[in-house]
Design a protein that fits this description.
This protein is an alpha+beta fold. It has one domain (19-93). The protein is 17% helix and 39% strand. The chain has helices at residues 6-12, 85-93; strands spanning 22-26, 31-35, 46-49, 53-64, 69-79. The chain has a three-stranded mixed β-sheet, with no helix packed on it. The protein is globular.
């Protein structure tokens, strides 16, 4: 049985819910997170760009729950990169 809180029930009963999307780019040294909203993420090697993800499209997803396997065929996303800050950050760290 799932136990929920009052705040969860209130939020969950809203007529429309906006998904929070997080794109994580993994490298040998750093993990770069680009999010659609402010999100609390704990990662000591993380570089965060919060609220800059505009759109994300993922297609051809295959899920095998029995084997704990998930595959994504393609993914694309759009970011708001004012002054090329994210681009320079990715170029430097990756």
């Amino acid at each position: 049985m799932r136990v929920t809180s009052t705040s969860f029930d209130t939020y969950n009963s809203n007529r429309s819910v906006t998904p929070i999307i997080v794109v994580k780019i993994v490298s040998d040294s750093y993990n770069v997170y680009i999010t659609s909203h402010d999100v609390d993420i704990t990662d000591t090697n993380g570089i965060f760009h919060q609220g800059l993800l505009i759109d994300c499209v993922v297609g051809s997803q295959t899920i095998e729950p029995e084997e704990a396997i998930s595959e994504i065929g393609s993914a694309s996303f759009q970011i708001l990169d004012k002054g090329s800050g994210i681009y320079r950050n990715l170029e430097y760290h990756l």
